[in-house]
Amino acid sequence: MTEDDVLEGITRLIRRVSGGRIREDDPIERTWTIEQDPVGLDSLDFVELIVSIEEEYQVIAADHDLGAIVTVGDLEDAVRRWIG
Q: CA 41, CA 14: separation in Å to the nearest integer?
């Protein structure tokens, strides 16, 4: 799995969980904050995103990582650690 594959997968899942707030042609930046616009996920959306990532990549999210995820880049880095 390449670095681009991970980012593309996360991007697809963020778009799905965002409920259409982020259009398909809008690029998602690593610096975007998960809880603020334009991503704007609330805590329930974030849980849904993490569960979707766990299912997509067949991983278990490390609890100690979850509180440190602030940006899309943080999420990408965490997913890479979970994948191993």
A: 9
Q: Could you tell me the CATH number of the domain that includes residue 64? A: 1.10.1200.10
Give me the number of domains the chain comprises: 1
Residue 51 sits in which domain range?
3-83
21 and 38 Cβ atoms separated by less than 8 Å: yes
Residue 68 C-alpha from the chain's centroid: 13
Taking the C-alpha atoms of residue 58 and residue 83, their distance in angstroms, rounded to an integer, is 8
CA dist 20 and 60 (Å) reads 26
Instruction: Return the bridge partners of 33, or none.
Output: 71
Q: What is the mean pLDDT of each run of 10 residues along the chain (84 residues)?
A: 83 92 87 90 95 96 95 96 93
- Torsion angle defined by CA atoms of residues 64, 35, 23 and 8, in that order, rounded to the nearest 10 degrees: -20
